[in-house]
Amino acid sequence: MAGERILPHLTEVNRAFWTGGREGCLLIQRCVACGRWVHPPRAACPACGGAVAAEPVSGDGTVFSFTVDHYRFNPGVPVPYVVALVELVEQQDLRLPTNIVDCDPPMVRIGMPVYAAFEPQDEVWVPVFRPM
Ligand code: ZN
Predict the structure, then answer these.
(1) pTM surpassing 0.90?
(2) What are the CB-based long-range contacts (under 8 Å, 24+) for 4-13?
(3) Taking 90 as the threshold, does the pLDDT of residue 109 lie above it?
(4) Omega into 46 within 30° of 0, i.e. cis?
(5) Cβ(116)–Cβ(126) under 8 Å?
(6) How far is the CA of 71 from the centre of ligand 1 (A)?
(7) What is d(CA 116, CA 25) in angstroms, rounded to the nearest whole number?
(8) Omega within 30 of 0 (cis) for the link into 120
(9) Cα separation, 53 vs 16, whole angstroms
(10) What local confidence, expressed as pLDDT, does residue 9 receive?
(11) What pLDDT was estimated at residue 73?
(12) pLDDT exceeds cutoff 60 at 68
């Protein structure tokens, strides 16, 4: 997706997720105690309260749900674009709100296999997904 995005505010907790693309890695927090993947980023595991650390995932996932946006909220972002919830293969319920790119919006389907790519802007590498 071309254009200027509204970027997230980076914190100690979410920095790995938003900047891992610089090294080509989608970094997701994982609980060091129970092994559960945790997203969105948090200071501790919601299941057991254990400490979390960012680890690379495969970047493979499927479209869990999506919507095609035709309204221009941000003048820098061309419409239509696809806002999707992508479920990563690492864990059922490990889902990211994201955009599906390099794909005609009418082609997007629930269950479609996708893989992570990144759109760098300033110091943030925004994770987006492309069809396999
Ligand atoms: Zn845990």
Answers:
(1) yes
(2) 4/74, 4/76, 4/77, 4/121, 5/74, 5/76, 5/77, 5/119, 5/121, 5/126, 6/74, 7/121, 7/122, 7/124, 7/126, 8/124, 10/123, 10/124, 13/41, 13/42, 13/43
(3) yes
(4) no
(5) no
(6) 39
(7) 9
(8) no
(9) 9
(10) 94
(11) 80
(12) yes
DSSP assignment string, the chain: --SPPPPPPP-TTTHHHHHGGGGT-EEEEEETTT--EE-S--SB-TTT--BEEEEEE--EEEEEEEEEE-S-SSTTS-SSEEEEEEEETTSTT-EEEEEE-SS-GGG--TT-EEEEEEEEETTEEEEEEEE-
pLDDT tens, position by position, 9-65: 999 999 999 999 999 999 999 999 999 999 999 999 999 999 999 999 999 999 999
CA separation, residue 120 to residues 3, 25, 46, 77, 95 (Å):
11, 13, 30, 15, 21
Cα 38 to middle of ligand 1, angstroms: 9
Distance 15 CA to ligand 1 centre (A): 20
How far, in Å, is the centroid of ligand 1 from the Cα of 48?
4
The Å distance, Cα 53 to ligand 1 centre, comes to 11
